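Batch 3, record 17
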Amino acid sequence: MAVCIAVIAKENYPLYIRCSANVEDELKFHFTVHTSLDVVEEKISSTGKTSTARAPDMREFYLGQLYPSEDYRIYGYVTNTKVKFVMVVEASNTQIRDNDVRSMFRRLHNAYTSVVCNPFYILGSNISSKAFEKVVAGMIVDEQKKELFT
Amino acid sequence: MSKHLKLPEELCCNPTPFIVLTGLDNVYNAVHKSIWDAFCNNRRNDRLQIQFSCLPGDHAYPRSKTKRTSYDWYIPKGLLKSSWMKKHLSLLPSVVVVFFELDWDDPAWKERHLACASRVQVVRSSLQGRTTKVAVVLIQKSTPLPPGEDMVAAERAAALCSACELSAKSLFILPHTDQLLGYIIRLENAFYELSQVYYRTEARRVKAHKEFLNKTTHQLLFPRHQFKIGFFNEMIQDPTSALKHYRHAYTHVHELRTYESNNLEIKLVGGFVNYKICKLCFLKLNAPLDAITQFRQHVEQFKSMCGSQDLLFEHSAWLSHQYQVFADLFSEAISKGLSAIQTQHPGFYYNQAAYYAKIRKQCAQKLKASLQDQTYPSEDPLKVEVLEFYGQRPWRQGQQRIDPADHSKEKDGIMALQLEETKQDHSLQIISLLGSAISIFKNYHCHRLKRQLTVQMGEEYYHAGDYMKVVALLTRATADYRTGRCWLILSKILWMLLHCSYLTADLESFLIHSTQLLSRHLSIPHDDKITVQHSLMNLLMRQIPLPILLPASFDHVPEHHTSAYNDAEEKWKTLLSSPKSFPVYSLQVTDAIPFVECKFQFSKPQFTMEEVIALHVFTRVTCPAPCKISKLLVLLNNGTELSVEENAEKDAKKSDLKQYTPFEIKEHVLKFLCSPHEKQNVLEVRQLSVLLGSSNGLSIDLIWSDQFVDAATDPKPSSPFSMAQLGGEKCWDDISNITSTEIVECPSRLKVNILHKTPAFVGEAYAIDIKINSSESNDFTAENVTAVLSLKQNENSETEAHLSEKCSDLHTSKAKSLQLALGNMETNQTIERTVYVQTTQASVLHFSLHVSYQMQKPSELPKTGVLTCTSSESIDFAVEVLTPFNFTAHVTSLNLDSVSTVNQNQPFIVLVNVSSENFSPIQINSFSLHLNENDGFKTAGEQSPALDGKVLQQRECAVGAFTVLCDKSHDPSTSFLIGSCTFEWSRFESENPAQKVTLQRKLPSILVKSSPVSITAAVPAFGHLRQKLTITYSLKSHISEPQTIEISCEGSDAFMFSGTKNSTGFLAPGEAHNYSYNFFPLAIGYQELPRFMVSCTKHAEDEKAAQKVDQYPQNRFIFVKP
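Prediction for the assembled complex:
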């Protein structure tokens, strides 16, 4: 499924970033995640401008596809506390549809909420929760498992 | 970019109709020159898009091939001929115009018109077989007459047309007058129409070929013909139909069978057609989305057609070029008003172009390795004068076969191409593409993408061997990744930077980047980290650093890199051996992530002046190997500098700074005293710096200020659950900076008591006793004890209060605060002082007492001598001020009825009521009345000292009655003050005679009526029912004139009476009359007596001025008992 999943703090630094195990050049995804923030920021500010009348929590969290790339599709999601999730999917992976991405983000959001609810977690520090790790691993490794079973 | 992959110029230009003008002699004939200029020069945008050319009349145009009638045996050799577009754009005209000077009334008409006809004939013959239009323009000196009037002209024009075999529509007259440009523009339009007809016929002619083609042998001709039709349509400036035909051509290209030998040809022509489609969509039809979709499909379809494995680089180069060309088109459209968005703009395409250029470079590098000992084929297979078809190999032109005919030739050709490729400067191309992308990303709020490209650009410069540029570019990029905390990226950049700083022997850059690269946040392999640290330590000792190698992913080491290492070593040697001293390089830690971390805490949030202030400084290093710190310096906000220095030579024990093992937390406690004159009571750390390196070698100064954290740490407080609390070891993250402490005075050891008997009374000298007792230990003398009592008042408060140390001074003192110098106090000594306060209004007075003193104490730190401490204590207290008693005064008649008006000369009573509400008893010592004698008030009869000596307890009251009369006549409408009274009072049983307070109060005002006659009546207090009651009214005149009086007594239901009911009398001055009445009460209770009324009339000289005054006796009611 996803090749790379990242959680970005409100202040735009990564809290968590994980790439699929069979990825050679991890650095490239760090760059991709970092650059996708440009678009995320722009999207947040533009929705902020147009929908001032709407309550902020009514905002759509899912940002959709961020920017065009030859090999990857990059999706974004922003929580109400301005924590960003970025997911990179291979462009060749046509099985995964917009709705799947949406539900994956929702699961990720739930997992993140549980992380934050942990009283020992310091807000703004790197995420090192096993439960969260498990959720992310489920989204990333899916593909390999499928291959194993078939 | 290889030349053969580039789009040809004729494809990129805007096709315009080509028209040739002949018969113009621009060199010798001024008239011709001006005509030519009008056609060609200063063509503005609103004029038609036409390409003019001036050629001699006998110019040889490209020969027409014999038109074939059937395509049956024809086998096409290629897709698109490279000469075709050029031919139609600039060689083969659509219209040839013959200019000829001939007037209708030319004397030699006959000869001249035949000469003209022969000129036309020459042109015709050189256009043999072409459908090019021919037109004739006669240049005439005179303005022509309106058509139909000049019979000669019409006749001769017809003759000329027939001689030249021209239609009448192709003959034009150009009178050479001053409105030349107007005529020219009209001519131009006519030519344009002719050329349109020409191109339309051409297009139709090409279309007609279709019928002869079959799909097997003539597959190449389908795209060719469609392309041609599209091109002609572009000539006519009909973009819509041009687009349609180009699209057809594009699909035909895709239908072609591809194999290795024609791969390039198909790709190239496909690229051409794609370019045309995108260009039309972007620039002519304003359909940018169509262009983008087309391009995306184009890339999608051709991306996989990589062709021969030996020529992979060519495919990448072609793809890169496609992207670049598309980005150029996109940019052009934007400059013409198209608006792009953040996620769809030319920057992405430039970036992609750069990406493919990089792939191309990688291919080329692989080739380079394999081609090292190959030589260029002796017979250049690439050498060819002109390629007949686009995209064909020079060594096998015009062949359409799946397998190459000559294998050795093919091999040589590929080898030649490969060798050519290795000579290319790829980095430069990539850099320029990245440059274009960066400049576009900048405009679309993509600063992170821009940064990424900057990093890529830096890498490219690295490959190109320009290390200075790498340092400059990447240094700029570090800040973004540092604030973004992308450690992986940052590690890579810093590593590269360090590597390049080493190669360029850039000392400052090397120091700064190595300091950061050693930080725990950055991940590079442990061994490399150790190398970096050794290099840094070497450098700080002024020795040559170890070479910094890049990670294995950068395995490619161009040949000039090896020499660069040697150069670098030389450079370092010369730099470090030069005798000059280097400055201390300072690094602001807020902009860096150094491997040294510092935190500090004041041990308490508050220190008294006598205490020793302790500042704990925690440091640790996160580099892999132990290291040294030479100096630690703290700068406070009062300018004090505290330092811990390495003094290894002098004192071995003090060298705790010297060695730091990684991740060990070292704590230094800096102890110092605050200077006694320090008025500032908050002590802050301004700056903290750590000096690495030695004074004789090189040194770097890490400076913490502002937030006191490095770029990797949040200034926020850390977790509420600290490891230390949980019983673990002290954890670095749990230490938080405490940057300030408060300096306070020593605690006061004076006991201050304030004694006073609240409440105070208005006007009283109220005594406040202040009692100070020193309980300072150890027999320290409290020096210069000063007490300041001050009154706290609101600004708008009207209460006046004065303070004084002496009771008798209170009237003169205006002091709001008092300073009492109490001198020195020994231990257990007590000082008492009394202060008096007086106020004029009931209120609450707030006081504050501030007692301060100094002490000399020996300090706790050795070598610092005696310490002067100051201490102080403040007490606030409030005093309630009340009025001592309530005072009221009333005026009553002699019967104690309340009145507001009194008659002149008639006595009345002033009642003075004094009541106390307070629990402390008050004694009225004396009371005196001061009547307003000026207005005629005086006492009537004797006065008793009714109030003197009275003591009022709480809720008691004392009343004094005073009989007063007024003997002056006044205006009855104004009231007059009766006078005032004076009390002298004191607190009961007060010993202090000075505390007697005199108080003056006003008596009420009253209206005084003047009366000429006074009526007095002796009315008994009561009467009995049906018992006679005698009342005598006595009248007395008070004026000096005689007066007439009328007496009347009105009957009443309650009384029967006898006496004068109605009479008139005369009253001389000073005379008195008595009238007696017997009243017989008929009803009980309060009854009004029959109304007795006197009206007096003054006898003046003037009758009219006589005043009539009605008067009644005072007592008009009587109580009747049964």
